[in-house]
Design a protein that fits this description.
Blueprint lengths: L2 E6 L19 E2 L2 E2 H11 L4 E6 L3 H8 L2 E2 L2 E7 L5 H10 L6 E6 L2 E3 L3 H11 L3 E7 L7 E4 L5 E5 L8 E11 L14 H12 L3 E5 L3 E3 L3 H10 L5
Parallel strand pairs: 1-4, 1-7, 4-6, 9-13
Antiparallel strand pairs: 2-3, 5-6, 7-12, 8-14, 9-12, 10-11
Helix pairs in contact: 3-5
Length: about 230
């Protein structure tokens, strides 16, 4: 079984000036809810089951998709209060059935070939992050990776800048990685876990050149209407 988690519970604060009546992953892009484009990509990549981590305006997502969509079995991990990306991943992994899961941000489209991520997982069975080269890393921060593909460290946004490799917001994680998470219920996966984890354990990077866009700002949301038109 190929299984995914989609983090779709964010508040979408920066996007409220243009989209305020639906959760951010349901914002219309090229005439369809953005989450449809993301789930369509997962269906084409051979996924069987998706756990949607939902919070803000969760019913809008559940009512739209139900328990299945285009061959994907859907389950929901509902946040009663915001858990941060780390808490949301922990809760969603608890609902997974396979021994590992791909994790995606519900406001980011990443055209990664998941046969490659699955093959890298099968070869090493280690956590991995999909990396993407961008012209300017200042908005995202930068990942430093050695010649063997091991992630060495993350540079903060203030330290980054210029072309480089970023964390594209897609992970492959063993389900039992939650045992290694901080004990608090709410935490940031990127800040409170990954920064320290890559120092003490091997975390791999898979590079992709696939389409990448985060719809979290009004400017990129407008750009996505054109960039993702072929996905609609």
């Amino acid at each position: 079984m190929r299984e995914a988690v989609v983090l779709a519970g964010g508040l979408g604060t920066r996007l409220r000036s243009v989209v305020s009546d639906v959760p951010k992953p349901m914002a219309p892009v090229a005439g369809r809810p953005f989450l449809e484009l993301l789930l369509g990509h997962l269906a084409r990549n051979g996924f069987d089951r998706v756990v949607l981590s939902v919070g803000h305006l969760a019913d809008a997502i559940g009512d739209h998709f139900g328990d299945a969509w285009r061959g994907l079995a859907l389950d929901y991990a509902r946040e009663d209060a915001p858990l941060g990306t780390g808490g949301a991943i922990r809760a969603a992994l608890a609902r997974c059935r396979a021994d590992h899961a791909h994790v995606f941000n519900g406001d980011t489209f990443l055209g990664v070939d998941c046969t490659r991520t699955e093959a890298l997982w099968a070869a090493h069975r280690l956590p991995l992050i999909v990396g993407r080269e961008v012209p300017d890393t200042a908005r995202y921060g930068r990942m430093e990776v050695d010649a063997d593909g091991r992630i060495l460290r993350f540079l903060e946004k203030a330290e980054a800048g210029g072309p480089g490799l970023i964390n594209a917001g897609c992970y492959v994680l063993p389900r039992d990685i939650a045992e290694d998470f901080p004990p608090q219920e709410r935490f940031s996966f990127e800040i409170d876990y990954l920064r320290e984890a890559v120092v003490r354990r091997r975390v791999l990077c898979l590079r992709t050149e696939g389409e990448f866009i985060d719809i979290g700002t009004p400017e990129d949301y407008a750009r996505a209407q054109i960039l993702l038109a072929s996905e609609a």
